[in-house]
Amino acid sequence: EITTRLVGSEMCIRDRFDVVRRGGGPVRRTVTLSNEGDAPLRVRCVESEKGFTWQLPPGTTLPPGESLATEVHFDPARADYGVQVGHLMLITDDPVRPMRKLRVTAIIEE
Description:
The protein is mainly β. The strands form two sheets. It has a five-stranded mixed sheet, with no helix packed on it. A five-stranded mixed sheet has the order 3-10-9-5-7, with no helix packed on it. A hairpin with a 6-residue loop joins β9 and β10. It is elongated, with a radius of gyration of 14 Å.
């Protein structure tokens, strides 16, 4: 599980897929976003790279004090062996820090 807390302008994340098998097919991890601010948080844009995809649609709104479980997918089929590092970009309407870049990693083995 990947956990992200949005607290004002702070973000915490546990970001590992750990070891995945190259021939084992796509893997998924749950991402829980929590809005610990005092206003609704609206997702404007989500970007991903290096085989990681975030199943979080733009327009999603997270009320204050609420959490939302989403998924990050990773397909190791085309990845090189070893450590794979990608980034997920979350752009919100947060007036203090609207852009968050989350680092995710996976270790690809045979």
